[in-house]
Amino acid sequence: MPGQGPGVLAQAVVQWCVVYEAKHQRPLTHAQFVRRLLGHSAIVIGLIVVSLALGMFGYVTFEHLSRLDAFLNAAMLMGGMGPVHLPQTAAGKLFAGLYALYAGLVFIVIAALLISPVLHRVLHRFHWDESTGDAGS
Fold it and tell me: Considering the entire predicted model, what is its pTM?
Protein backbone atom coordinates (compact mmCIF):
# COMPACT_ATOMS: atom_id res chain seq x y z
CA MET A 1 0.00 0.00 0.00
CA PRO A 2 2.07 2.93 -1.25
CA GLY A 3 1.91 6.17 0.69
CA GLN A 4 0.46 4.57 3.79
CA GLY A 5 2.37 3.80 6.97
CA PRO A 6 3.29 0.39 8.35
CA GLY A 7 0.37 0.63 10.79
CA VAL A 8 -2.12 0.33 7.94
CA LEU A 9 -0.29 -2.71 6.58
CA ALA A 10 -0.23 -4.32 10.03
CA GLN A 11 -3.96 -3.66 10.41
CA ALA A 12 -4.65 -5.28 7.02
CA VAL A 13 -2.64 -8.36 8.05
CA VAL A 14 -4.55 -8.62 11.34
CA GLN A 15 -7.86 -8.31 9.50
CA TRP A 16 -6.78 -11.08 7.12
CA CYS A 17 -5.85 -13.37 10.04
CA VAL A 18 -9.09 -12.66 11.93
CA VAL A 19 -11.46 -13.68 9.17
CA TYR A 20 -14.77 -13.86 11.03
CA GLU A 21 -16.50 -11.27 13.17
CA ALA A 22 -17.06 -11.96 16.87
CA LYS A 23 -20.54 -12.68 18.20
CA HIS A 24 -20.87 -9.18 19.67
CA GLN A 25 -20.24 -7.58 16.26
CA ARG A 26 -22.98 -6.87 13.74
CA PRO A 27 -23.28 -9.49 10.96
CA LEU A 28 -21.71 -8.58 7.63
CA THR A 29 -23.73 -6.87 4.95
CA HIS A 30 -24.61 -8.89 1.86
CA ALA A 31 -21.83 -7.24 -0.17
CA GLN A 32 -19.23 -7.94 2.54
CA PHE A 33 -20.39 -11.56 2.77
CA VAL A 34 -20.10 -12.00 -1.00
CA ARG A 35 -16.58 -10.54 -0.82
CA ARG A 36 -15.74 -13.07 1.93
CA LEU A 37 -17.07 -15.93 -0.21
CA LEU A 38 -15.02 -14.72 -3.17
CA GLY A 39 -11.91 -14.59 -0.97
CA HIS A 40 -12.46 -18.15 0.21
CA SER A 41 -13.13 -19.24 -3.38
CA ALA A 42 -9.87 -17.64 -4.51
CA ILE A 43 -7.97 -19.57 -1.84
CA VAL A 44 -9.69 -22.79 -2.96
CA ILE A 45 -8.81 -22.17 -6.61
CA GLY A 46 -5.21 -21.48 -5.66
CA LEU A 47 -5.05 -24.68 -3.62
CA ILE A 48 -6.47 -26.69 -6.51
CA VAL A 49 -3.99 -25.20 -9.00
CA VAL A 50 -1.01 -25.85 -6.71
CA SER A 51 -2.22 -29.39 -5.97
CA LEU A 52 -2.69 -30.20 -9.65
CA ALA A 53 0.75 -28.79 -10.45
CA LEU A 54 2.29 -30.92 -7.69
CA GLY A 55 0.53 -34.02 -9.02
CA MET A 56 1.55 -33.31 -12.59
CA PHE A 57 5.15 -32.75 -11.55
CA GLY A 58 5.20 -36.07 -9.71
CA TYR A 59 3.67 -38.06 -12.54
CA VAL A 60 5.97 -36.49 -15.13
CA THR A 61 9.03 -37.01 -12.93
CA PHE A 62 8.38 -40.49 -11.50
CA GLU A 63 6.23 -42.12 -14.17
CA HIS A 64 7.49 -40.24 -17.24
CA LEU A 65 3.94 -39.47 -18.39
CA SER A 66 3.19 -36.69 -20.84
CA ARG A 67 1.94 -33.45 -19.29
CA LEU A 68 -1.58 -34.16 -20.53
CA ASP A 69 -1.63 -37.68 -19.06
CA ALA A 70 -0.10 -36.37 -15.84
CA PHE A 71 -2.85 -33.76 -15.63
CA LEU A 72 -5.49 -36.44 -16.21
CA ASN A 73 -4.08 -38.65 -13.44
CA ALA A 74 -3.71 -35.76 -10.99
CA ALA A 75 -7.20 -34.44 -11.73
CA MET A 76 -8.78 -37.88 -11.38
CA LEU A 77 -7.08 -38.38 -8.00
CA MET A 78 -8.08 -34.88 -6.84
CA GLY A 79 -11.65 -35.66 -7.87
CA GLY A 80 -11.65 -38.93 -5.95
CA MET A 81 -11.91 -41.20 -8.99
CA GLY A 82 -8.46 -42.80 -8.86
CA PRO A 83 -5.64 -42.88 -11.39
CA VAL A 84 -6.18 -43.63 -15.08
CA HIS A 85 -2.64 -44.88 -15.71
CA LEU A 86 -1.48 -47.31 -13.05
CA PRO A 87 2.05 -46.59 -11.82
CA GLN A 88 4.77 -48.88 -13.18
CA THR A 89 7.83 -47.83 -11.16
CA ALA A 90 8.41 -48.20 -7.42
CA ALA A 91 8.92 -44.43 -7.09
CA GLY A 92 5.75 -43.82 -9.09
CA LYS A 93 3.75 -46.16 -6.85
CA LEU A 94 5.05 -44.43 -3.73
CA PHE A 95 4.26 -41.01 -5.20
CA ALA A 96 0.76 -42.09 -6.30
CA GLY A 97 -0.03 -43.41 -2.82
CA LEU A 98 1.19 -40.29 -1.06
CA TYR A 99 -0.53 -38.02 -3.57
CA ALA A 100 -3.81 -39.91 -3.10
CA LEU A 101 -3.59 -39.35 0.68
CA TYR A 102 -2.77 -35.69 0.07
CA ALA A 103 -5.69 -35.33 -2.36
CA GLY A 104 -8.08 -36.73 0.24
CA LEU A 105 -6.93 -34.18 2.80
CA VAL A 106 -7.14 -31.36 0.26
CA PHE A 107 -10.75 -32.37 -0.46
CA ILE A 108 -11.59 -31.99 3.24
CA VAL A 109 -9.83 -28.61 3.44
CA ILE A 110 -11.63 -27.35 0.33
CA ALA A 111 -15.00 -28.43 1.70
CA ALA A 112 -14.27 -26.66 4.99
CA LEU A 113 -13.15 -23.47 3.24
CA LEU A 114 -16.32 -23.33 1.17
CA ILE A 115 -18.79 -24.31 3.90
CA SER A 116 -17.37 -22.38 6.87
CA PRO A 117 -18.38 -18.84 5.76
CA VAL A 118 -21.96 -19.95 5.11
CA LEU A 119 -22.21 -21.89 8.36
CA HIS A 120 -20.71 -19.00 10.32
CA ARG A 121 -23.19 -16.55 8.80
CA VAL A 122 -26.17 -18.78 9.61
CA LEU A 123 -25.05 -19.27 13.22
CA HIS A 124 -24.13 -15.60 13.65
CA ARG A 125 -27.49 -14.38 12.37
CA PHE A 126 -29.27 -16.95 14.52
CA HIS A 127 -27.60 -15.59 17.67
CA TRP A 128 -27.77 -11.89 16.73
CA ASP A 129 -30.47 -9.87 18.46
CA GLU A 130 -31.56 -6.95 16.24
CA SER A 131 -33.40 -5.11 19.02
CA THR A 132 -30.41 -4.82 21.36
CA GLY A 133 -27.71 -4.85 18.70
CA ASP A 134 -25.86 -7.61 20.50
CA ALA A 135 -25.68 -11.37 20.68
CA GLY A 136 -27.96 -13.03 23.19
CA SER A 137 -26.42 -14.34 26.41
Answer: 0.76
